[in-house]
Each structure stands twice: as structure tokens, then as C-alpha cells.
Amino acid sequence: MSRRLEKMEGQVVGRAVRLFRNRLRLRAGSSQDIAGNAVKETEKAQEHTLPNFAGGQHFFEYLLVVSLKKKHSGDDYEPTITYQFPKRENLLRGQQEEEERLLSAIPLFCFPDGNQWAPLTEYPRETFSFVLTNVDGSRKIGYCRRLLPAGRGPRLPRVYCILSCIGCFGLFSKILDEVEKRHQISMAVIYPFMQGLREAAFPAPGKTVTLKSFIPDSGTEFISLTRPLDSHLEHVDFSSLLHCLRFEQILQIFASAVLERRIIFLAEDLSTLSQCIHAAAALLYPFSWAHTYIPVVPERLLDTVCCPTPFMVGVQMQFQQVVMDSPMEEVLLVNLCEGTFLLSVGDEKDILPPKLQEDILDALGQGTKELQTSEQINEHVSGPFVQFFVKTVGHYTTYIKREANGHGHFQERPFCKALTSKANRRFVKKFVKTQLFSLFIQEAEKSKHPPAGYFQRKILEYEDQKKHKKLREKTVK
Q: For the range 114-120, what are the long-range contacts, defined as Cβ-Cβ under 8 Å and sequence gap of 24 or more?
């Protein structure tokens, strides 16, 4: 893990990276304070030696409980880690510094809405996430459940946070359900469940892992955790995005993201912000957003919206005026509560080829009433955007020329010329200049094996359809 911790998904470049990284280092709480406030459970959760899994990954790195603690002066509260599993010991000095920097950043993202809190008797449960990305591109995702702890009378919200390198939101939401259920009994009851989870291998797509866990007064329970079969959509849920916006607006957000513009989402609650921004980024599959990416911007970091480089961020509605008063250029500002664009560049409807825009909208509008499960919704929404990339850049493998050693070189000019549609060609000439496409092609050039996966399957299906169509046309003639 890099020493320079970023608060964004994807590699961040240039001045925005340095500004953002330094700000996190200066403003996150000190590691000594975190260690001093940590709850010392009787089980002394040590790091266990974990088995090596063939092709598998571990579910998570940490389970943390982040609570609000009153500052020594004033009425403000400071988010603080009050429980940590596992407690890592015997780390080298460099590793310890990195872990401390990581842990000191997390409370800021568990309570991004500032430090002015008051004890409450009611608070709606919220499930959201944040992303921490190292400069080497490796990612850590914080899955959070914020709620009022069990008890009577006014009390402060608390956050359960599971930090993992794996993107699978539905599965981790179920894990948070189990953590919450056990915490109502005792923190000590969480330990054996999380230890069992930590020793289990993350299942392959479509597979299930079953954990055995004992709960006082309930006995032994068997908990099944199933990974979605279609792994490219397991990190996203499009339901919130569909609830907040019309298809035409989603298409304009996609167009802005494809050209790597600045996009800000506004919403009241953390869950909506988190889900909608992940959904917007997922529309870019098989490409990955490679710039500043913060599902929920902490209050202390709101001036991120002034960065001159591309970004995709979420901001709580209470900070709308701060955002509106900030100096920004060419930004798409999306109000998820009202389903409106507060600011736009003005050309969002003209970025994509008209015929392909019609194809996307037609596909999105068909059969929506029959959709029932989240998997069906995800496939229905994602499919038309995947087809867009199949039709525009799906021929990329033909234009990677390989040397004897297997290394490839992408032939950009003939690749663009191969498109017969002028509108498609105009779009692709712009798209190949983006970092989205550059990073994708760099990986393809490095690979010595034929591409595989969902996107390649869709390309082959599309090519087969074109062949059959030509054969039918010849037969009719």
C-alpha cells in the first residue's frame, strides 16, 4: 500500500492529486488519538495467520466502529475509531506508518457532514460507501452502516465500517446486517463472526460461502453469502439513479463522464449519493473513471470542487450554497432530490452520436415494468451503454499490432477510419484522447492473451449478429 493515501476512486493526476493528498494528511486526526480511544476488548483481536487461497481474496482488512466523541473545548464532536478488528501488531515501521495514516483518514469519511451533532432519539439507518485509492491504483472501499446504537434516551449515531479491497456492495450490506445484529448483544459476539469471515476465501462469481456462527440465546446459525454471477455489476445498484433521474438525464451524465468532465451530485442522504455516483461511474464499463472520485465529499474537503482537473463527486444538500459559491468551470451539477441540473455546459445532448443516443433511450424504455430484482435492473440499465461501446470501439483488438515478443501497439488512425458512420467517427476521435480509453488500451497492449470477459462476449455477439444480417440480406437479394 502506498504511503500517499488518496480519497478518490481511480488514479488521480497532476495538481489535484497533490492538493488533495496534502489536505488529507493535514486534516485527518492523529493516529495516537485513535489508538488512545480504541476500545480494548477482552479477546484482544490479534492478526491471525491467514491461509493462502488459490485465486481467492480475503473478504476484508478491517472492521471499525467510528463514534462521535466530544472535543475538549466547545460543543463540537470528533469522529473517532472506538473498535478495531483485527489489531495489527509486529508491523515494520514503514508499514505501521501507512496503517496509521489509513486509519486516521477513515473517521472523516464515516462522518463527512461535519462535527456539529446533538444527541438524537431517532435517526434513519444509512448504508453508504467511500473509496480510498493509492497512487499505484490499488483501491480500498469502506462499506458503512450509520445508525443509532441500541439504548434509551438521546444518543449519538455510530458507524460500522468494513474496509475491503473488494467491490461487492450487495454482499457487504448483508455482512453489515450481521455485524449490526451481533453488536446489539455485545462487541464480543462480533469477533468470532468476523474472524470466520476473515479466514474465508472470497467466492468466485456465482458461488456461495457459508459461515457458521454462534449467537447467545439463538444458537448456531449458518450464514450464506453469495457473489453475483455477473461480476462486472456486483459493485453497483442502479435503482437509486433510476428513482432520481430520467433516462435522458442519465444519458447526459454518461456523455459528460465519457469526455471526462467535472460532475457533482447533490443529495440529502449519504445512501442516495453513494449509490448514484457508483452507478454513474459503472455506466462507463468496460472503462474506469481515472480521475478524482469521491462518493461523499467530507465538509473539510469541499474545495475539491474547485479543482481544475476532471472529477466525479457527491456533496450533501446542506452544502449546496457552498458549492454554488465556489469558483468552478464547465461543471455538470446534478440535484438528485429534485431531478434537475443546476449547472451544465450546455452541449451534453450533442456529445454522443444521435443514432446511438436513440438506441440507448429505446433500449432503456423497453420492458421496465417487468424488472423485479436488482440484478435485472442492473443488466437492463447497463446493457445499452455496453452496446454503445461495442458499436463505437468494439473493433479495437483488430488494430493492436503485436511484435514477436507479444507486446502490442495500438494503431489509432486506422482504428478511427474503420468506422463508416461520420458521427461515430467524430465521437471516437475525441474519445481516444481521454484517459479512460488510454488506460484501457495500455492494458490491452500489455496483454499477450486474447481478451476475455463480459465486454468481449458482447463484442463477439454483435459481430455474429452483423454476419447473420449480411447473410439474410444476400439471401433476400
A: 114/299, 115/71, 115/76, 115/77, 115/78, 115/79, 116/75, 116/76, 116/77, 117/68, 117/77, 117/156, 117/157, 118/154, 119/153, 119/154, 119/155, 119/156, 120/148, 120/154, 120/155, 120/156, 120/157
Residue with more model confidence, 453 or 314 = 314
The residue among 241, 235, 246, 251 whose CA lies nearest residue 388 is 251
So what's the pLDDT on residue 106? 93
User: Which position has the higher pLDDT, 422 or 235?
Assistant: 422
Q: What is the pLDDT of residues 319-338, one digit of tens each?
A: 999 999 999 888 999 999 99
Among 23-27, 336-340, 448-452, name the one with the lowest average pLDDT. Answer: 23-27
One-letter identity of residue 169 = F
Instruction: Assess contact for 296 and 8: CB atoms under 8 A.
Output: no
All three cell numbers of 306 = 474547485
329 residue type, one letter: E
For the stretch 31-46, pLDDT in tens is 223 222 322 332 332 3
Residue with grid cell 458521427, as numbered in its chain: 423
Label residue 477 by pLDDT band (50, 70, 90).
low
Q: Which residue has the higher pLDDT, 321 or 91?
A: 321
Can you give the pLDDT at residue 137? 64
Phi/psi region, residue 297 (left: phi>0; alpha: psi -120 to 50; beta: rest), is beta
**What confidence category does residue 113 fall into, taking pLDDT thresholds of 50, 70 and 90?**
confident
Q: pTM of the predicted model, to two decimals?
A: 0.80
3-class SS letters over the chain = CCCCEECCCCCCCHHHHHHHHHHHHHHCCCHHHHHHHCCCCCCCCECCCCCCCCCCCECCCEEEEEEEEECCCCCCEEEEEEEEECECCCCCHHHHHHHHHHHHHHHHHHCCCCCCCCCECCCCCEEEEEEEEECCCCEEEEEEEEECCCCCCCECCEEEEEEECCCCHHHHHHHHHHHHHHHCCCHHHHHHHHHHHHCCECCCCCCEEEEEEEECCCEEEEEEEECCCCHHHCCCCCHHHHHHCCHHHHHHHHHHHHCCCEEEEEECCHHHHHHHHHHHHHCCCCCCCCCEEECCCCHHHHHHHHCCCCEEEEEEHHHHHHHHCCCCCCEEEEECCCCEEEECCCCHHHCCCHHHHHHHHHHHHCCHHHCCCHHHHHHHHHHHHHHHHHHHHCCHHHHEEECCCCCEEECHHHHHHCCCCHHHHHHHHHHCCCHHHHHHHHHHHHCCCCCCCHHHHHHHHHHHHHHHHHHHHHHHC
